[in-house]
Design goal:
The structure is a single chain. This protein is α/β, with parallel strands linked by helices. It is 21% helix and 33% strand. The chain has helices at residues 55-68, 84-93, 105-117, 199-207, 245-260, and strands at residues 4-15, 21-29, 43-48, 75-78, 98-100, 141-142, 151-158, 170-174, 188-195, 211-218, 225-231, 235-242, 264-270, 278-285. Strands 3-2-1-4-5 form a five-stranded mixed β-sheet, sandwiched between helices. Strands 7-9-13-14-8 form a five-stranded mixed β-sheet, with helices on one face. It has a four-stranded mixed β-sheet with strand order 6-12-11-10, covered by helices on one side. The radius of gyration is 20 Å and the shape is globular.
Length: 290
């Protein structure tokens, strides 16, 4: 089983004895098991003086985490684009593949928890807004011609219907523990199902991306709505362009349902509506990264 870690390295709202902000490396294990208890996942935290902030210190912290972990990571994800160069060098020097990703769900929840319950316990805590992660505007790309779906539909599943996800026949995909979001069993989770005669190549191509979330967004002219697949640090792909009023309303309803489900949703790829297997199925969550 592939072991994925999520990593953040940034300043925290705590001052050291010199009145300078402490930095911290946070490393945690990701999980593709929908039944996993997030509290059982490996976690590592280490503070760093601002005078020691460099890729060497971070590499040593990563190696310290590896020494403590049940198993070393096969790859690492990170979301903080301001730290791209330092994090990339530290991981590469440690011999680990590194990916910019907005799929850092366990780390995001952990960081919010520490912001609320850990950092305020320090005498030198400095309350204030969390540092934001700014993403420059992106230009959504068209899907490769050979990978465009034949048709698509917006669907919905109750959270409890995902309980046996591990038993579904899925060729490519990834999930996460629903305990991270605490949804009611009957909470509807919206999703997009793409039907394609080239379902396996499409799902395989998607599996090579760092899938982040789906979003319905107006185009630049405001005359149509695009269904976008956000990936990596700042990439986006156009899954469909909707001009008909009823389809635009369906896309707006999808966004509203997504918000009601704490931004949890899914993307699925099948050969046809009659298929009983999935070429791809990804459980997604749009994160407010900060």
């Amino acid at each position: 089983m592939t072991v994925i870690w999520e990593l953040d390295f940034y300043s925290r709202p705590i001052l050291d004895e010199r009145g300078k902000k402490l930095w911290e490396a946070l490393i945690c294990e990701s999980s593709t098991d929908i039944h996993c208890n997030p509290s059982n996942l490996f976690r590592f935290a280490k503070f760093c003086a601002n005078t020691e902030v460099n890729s060497v210190w971070l590499r040593e912290a990563i190696e310290e985490a590896i020494a403590q972990a049940p198993a070393p990571p096969d790859r690492i994800r990170f979301f903080r684009r301001q730290m791209t160069n330092m994090i990339t060098k530290a991981c590469e020097d440690a011999g680990l593949p590194i990916y910019a990703s907005r799929r850092t769900l366990v780390l995001s929840e952990w960081l919010q928890e520490r912001m609320a319950t850990v950092y305020p316990t320090f005498d030198t805590y400095q309350p204030g807004d969390n540092p934001s992660v700014s993403y420059p505007p992106n230009t959504p790309q068209a899907l490769p011609d050979a990978l465009r779906g034949d048709r698509w539909t917006i669907a919905s599943l109750a959270a409890e219907e995902l309980a046996d996800l591990a038993e579904w026949d899925i060729s490519f995909g990834e999930a996460f523990p629903l305990d991270l979001v605490k949804l009611d069993a009957d909470a509807p989770i919206p999703g997009l199902i793409i039907y394609s005669s080239r379902d396996l190549p499409l799902a395989a191509w998607m599996s090579g991306l760092e899938l982040a979330f789906l979003k319905a967004s107006p185009d630049e002219a405001g005359k149509s709505t695009r269904l976008l697949l956000e990936t990596g640090a700042n990439e986006a792909w156009i899954l469909a362009t909707l001009t008909a009023a009823d389809l635009q309303q369906a896309a707006q309803a999808f966004e509203a349902a997504k918000q009601q489900a704490q931004n949890v949703h899914f993307l699925a790829v099948q050969s046809s509506p009659e298929a009983e297997t999935f070429a791809g199925f990804w459980l997604l969550k749009e994160l407010n990264l900060a």
